[in-house]
Amino acid sequence: MRRVSIKDVAREAGVSTTTVSYVLNEITTQTISSETSRRVREVAKRMGYVPNLNARSLTSRKTNLIGIVIPQTEPGREFMFDNPFYGALLSSLEFNARRNGYHLLLTGPASGQSYIGVARNRGVDGIVIVGSYPSSSLDELHQLSIPVVLIDTYVTDESFHTIGINDRQGGLLATEYLLSRGHRGIAFVSGGISEHGVMRQRFLGYQEALEAAGLQVREERLYTGEVSFQHGMQAARELCSQQDITAVFAAADILGVGVVKGLRQQGRRVPEDVSVMGFDDLDLAQICDPSLTTMRQDIAAKGRQAILTILDALDGKPDKQEWIFPVDLVVRDSVRSVGRPVTAQKHRRPDSGEELNE
Amino acid sequence: MRRVSIKDVAREAGVSTTTVSYVLNEITTQTISSETSRRVREVAKRMGYVPNLNARSLTSRKTNLIGIVIPQTEPGREFMFDNPFYGALLSSLEFNARRNGYHLLLTGPASGQSYIGVARNRGVDGIVIVGSYPSSSLDELHQLSIPVVLIDTYVTDESFHTIGINDRQGGLLATEYLLSRGHRGIAFVSGGISEHGVMRQRFLGYQEALEAAGLQVREERLYTGEVSFQHGMQAARELCSQQDITAVFAAADILGVGVVKGLRQQGRRVPEDVSVMGFDDLDLAQICDPSLTTMRQDIAAKGRQAILTILDALDGKPDKQEWIFPVDLVVRDSVRSVGRPVTAQKHRRPDSGEELNE
DNA sequence: CATCCTTACTTAACCGTTTCAGTACCTCTG
DNA sequence: CAGAGGTACTGAAACGGTTAAGTAAGGATG
Question: What CATH number should be reported for the domain holding residue A32?
């Protein structure tokens, strides 16, 4: 039992397929009598005709499909994304795509073959790539002559649109906030620090803040790994051996909540013994206890802008778009001031605790 | 600059498109000389030929696409899924689809029009529907002659495959566990209790357990709404006015963590003052503090089985598949026994606290 | 009354691919 | 040396739709 095609409708209505196509697509350059028009519509409805978008895209060279590439937590792991961050982003991408008549073709980076394969094969109209990948795979994107939006990756390539936040400033503000609370031993827990990734930028912000306060980044206070709850816990367990660490900057909320959990398991109280700072402001940050002081970013805005940028490009706007959304400090309960006021620092007055960056 | 098609390759290699198709698809029913074969392959590679899957699906009547419908939290809200449950499920669906050569076409229920439209238009090979919908929309699914898998919905329709867990038993075990800990005032916080939904089944389990213990469901202890952190918090705030409630069964972890948060905000300690029981065992359950005692379900298995079931059906296996995965009690830190041992109950001995259901 | 313009269609080509049904040539067989 | 069989291809139709170009009929124009 085949689906009904335009031919079936044409035969039943006693007209040509062309006429059916004209009627159903409401082509105004062609006049069709209202009687024929009515009859075609009636027959199409009665027979349950639905156009085959794949066939249509053959002639129109347009699929109304947007490819989404989301990284796997770890290659070979079953889960594409453990981090609720991706769920939130995907939600926004889907919502905005659909309201503009597009659909999402979802894929992780294909194991073995190029992760762009899908996009090429399916002929998606545009592609959104989330996270950073080896630049070799970006090279392949050039071969596709479709709009490409990169979310959360740092590349200088002029042919890609980019969407992100000011990660470096986020790292800077977060660390400055901890410093302003009197912390001097600040650990940094993050995902892998790759060349084009956001983690590197957040690290640079951390470094900048430390150095501005006359402190140095210390190797033994850096805990990089994967962006997961487990790694956060693991890092917390390890850093407990260093007594001079009074605060942890976790460069993702999912890491932050892991750190809190890990500290607890080691018998440390948060924030009384150790302060923890997150990044992202996922729901998670409010869910955990104590609620997480964190750097907020607008994930929904990122998803929305990604789709709009693709649509702009498809509309023929040639300009490269580069969106950088702001980050904001959200003060909650996981950070507290250390007892003695800061006096030894040149650049900071003891009462500087309240000069929050907005 | 058009993509190179099979015709371009054929012309360049000096053969017909048929030959190119035979070579590239390694059709063994047709003999091709190794010299021609080599040449065609070389030319195809050199020209960067990639087959157009849309065109292919026109003749093969197969798109290698699986449609996924995931509910919106609330109609009109920007977010399709706030609940990390869906992220986890989607991950598993994507992973298992891709390893079998399929891709996922993602969509929320289209506002206004039927949410099946996409599936019909795109000609997906199968469709996975997550959550429960009005049965009217299920009727439309009959018109599609493709395999349909329903996850987490209770329908008796023979033409759909179903995948779920034993929600009623989950509700029963959870409530029995709370009862075994001496709780008698047990509130029920859940999503909307619709006819075909999982929440109704979990409620029935709750009711069964109460009645087996000689207790009655009391209307004022039921808090239904949406499945969200916010609703959990709201319910907790409201139930604080009832002093005889010593435990809360939240029928989803995301609700459970909301309840914990809400109770805390009202100055109640968990579990010292009020015990909380969740459902799902998301990462969240370990992330929150106290970690949540909950009913575990295997989300990855659901996703995997959904894809396998679609593939089975596409392979021509005619049988309706109906998978019910087990639920397991996971004891963590959010439930504690109430002080006095239970003596007044006929069916329970005072020491029955340890007869955990495995 | 021949010409032109509308109106209301249809014909046919095309999108990129698959596949059935040839066809041409060569070699082997009886 | 006719016929059979194998090898190595090609032609053309088909999938479901779009669209440029053509056409036939009727009415208005000069």
Answer: 1.10.260.40
Percent of chain A with pLDDT over 70: 90
Which among B54, B145, B289 has CB closest to A54?
B54
- Provide the number of structural domains found in chain A: 3
CATH number at A117 reads 3.40.50.2300
Residue of chain A with shortest Cα separation from B233: A287
Q: B56 in a domain, yes or no?
A: no
Most confident of B69-78, B116-125, B344-353: B116-125
Q: How far is CA B112 from the centre of its chain?
A: 24
**Could you tell me which chain A residue has the CA closest to the CA of B228?**
A283
Chain C bases under 7 Å from protein CB? 7-12, 14-21
Helix or strand run (H / E) with residue A163:
strand A161-165
Residue A56 maps to a domain: no
Q: Which of B50, B52, B87 sits opposite A86 (nearest CB)?
A: B87
Cα B152 to the center of its chain, rounded Å: 6
Positions in chain D where some atom is under 7 Å from a protein CB? 7-12, 14-21
Using CB atoms within 10 Å of the CB of residue B217, give its burial: 0 to 12 exposed, 13 to 18 middle, 19+ buried: middle
Domain span at residue A318?
A: 65-166+301-325
Lowest-confidence region among A129-138, B120-129, B167-176, B282-291:
A129-138
Co-location of B241 and B288 in the same domain: yes
pLDDT at B242 over 80: yes
Question: What pLDDT shows up at residue B340?
Answer: 58
CA distance A344 to chain B (A): 37
Burial status of residue B8 (CB atoms within 10 A of its CB: 0-12, 13-18, 19 or more)? middle
Greater pLDDT, B60 or B353: B60
Chain B positions touching A283 (Cβ under 8 A) are 82, 229
